[in-house]
Amino acid sequence: MSNDPTTPVPASAPAAAPASAPAPDSPFRAEPGDRDLAPQFVLPLVVRIERAAPPPRTDALETAARAVLVMLGDERSTGDGAWARAMRDWQDARIRKVVRRARGAEWRRAEALPGITVTGKSAEVRVFPPVPLDGWPKDLARLQVSGTDLDDPEPPAAADPAAPVLWMNPDLDMSAGKAMAQAGHGAQLAWWALSDGERSAWREAGFPLSVRTADPARWGGLTTGGLPVVRDAGFTEIAPGSCTVVADHPALRR
To answer: Who contacts 121 (Cβ-Cβ below 8 Å, separation ≥6)?
Structure first.
């Protein structure tokens, strides 16, 4: 899986950022800023991968993206909630997400820690409140980052055009963990770009979304169409500045 210190950067700043979105001088900056000198936090995600029954890749990507949204929309993550300070500290610096894998007793120990488990068709992903980059809980720190990859037994069905779609770059070959983290970044950028009412509607609907690889012929238009774009910081797997995901939410289409 992926240790993914990635910087999501929209292709162009929204005309009016939501009130709870971070200030421009932080996760949206392509170059280092003052907040890069602040203590760094990471959002841990753990995907359950049992040896005999690993989840399909697309299901895992979609479940990871949904897990990020569930964490962002949870009442404990805002205001005076139990996780609000950690969420603020995390969102005030580089938006790092790390995806690790667990099975059996490892998964049961992870489930015992404070967090939220999100299930897809068969995938299970547990998301935890942000932790310091060098201060992981023991039962999460021991989990593997790399090793197991995931495949789709059958090609995924066409995405529902009425629902949000996270379009993956067709020219990049990413591990499942890296792609899960990138899908999470895309979902988060979409969340930040929405109004409070649009966020509430998405949350109440259960955060429907699809993750699909874009048609190469459409990719250029997607990255220049004003939708939120994730650009990788280049610490793992791919070149710095690579566009990895375009967040295509119906409310953001022009």
So the answer is: 55, 56, 59
| pLDDT for 10 | 38
Match 């949870």 to its residue by tokens. 74
Which residues, in sequence order, are CB contacts of 146 under 8 Å at separation 6+?
A: 1, 2, 175, 177
Question: Strands 131-132 and 124-127: what pairing?
Answer: unpaired
Q: What pTM was estimated for this model as a whole?
A: 0.86
Rounded CA-CA distance 43/217 in Å is 33
- pLDDT for 31 equals 54
Closest CA to 193 of 35, 67, 15, 62: 15
Dist CA 114 CA 129 (whole Å)? 8
Upper half-sphere CA count for residue 150 (Cβ side, 13 Å): 25
Contact between 64 and 125 (Cβ < 8 Å): yes
The residues that bridge with 166 in the sheet, in sequence order, are 211, 247
